[in-house]
Amino acid sequence: MNSKAFKLGVLASGRGTNLQAIIDHIENGRLTAEIAVILSDRKNAQALERGRKHGIEAQFVDPKAFADKRAYNAELVRILQAKTVDLVCLAGYMRIVREPFFESFPNRIINIHPSLLPAFPGLDVQQKAIDYGVRFSGCTVHYVNEEVDGGPIIMQAVVPVEDGDTAETLSARILEKEHEIYPRAIQQIVDNRLRIENRRVVHAKSPERQP
Length: 211
What we know:
Layout lengths: L6 E5 L5 H11 L6 E7 L5 H8 L4 E3 L8 H14 L4 E4 L10 H4 L4 E5 L11 H8 L3 E8 L9 E8 L6 H24 L3 E4 L2 E4 L8
Parallel strand pairs: 1-2, 1-4, 2-3, 4-5
Antiparallel strand pairs: 5-6, 6-7, 8-9
Helix pairs in contact: 1-6, 5-6
């Protein structure tokens, strides 16, 4: 592992397809970062196996082994800090991150959500979009803060909702866009092209100077 590389820590609970997209972009040179560690709250998460196949350290951290949610989150933070992680990426992580995450990684935690936030936060969003009758859905990369799915928006991609769509068919098309924009958003952070002004994320054409 290159000590000077921009290091990612990935939290995942399930299949890890967005994790795989990040790995693929790193390996083909389109994302200039490396994954320092993958952490999961589920022992049999496919994301862990995906990481191990690529030689990435992948750990199951059992939530039941801790007295409360803060203690569990503190252990995740301890591992991430020990790996000198620069950015925490949630990739299908099904738990709400809590302190001490925000004090430890201020504006350095991001997530991808399968809707055009602020519409349809939370779970089962594709079915909600279909039931509501929207003509367009999509996905959103956003910073993570104390408000669930409420952090400043970094990037979005639009997916039309077609007549006859089911939650499954819509989800599959949105997932394709997730795999495109999540690595792109990470690269913008690696390149120091983003700054937050109030709630708006401003994208610089050239890298911002470090203070």
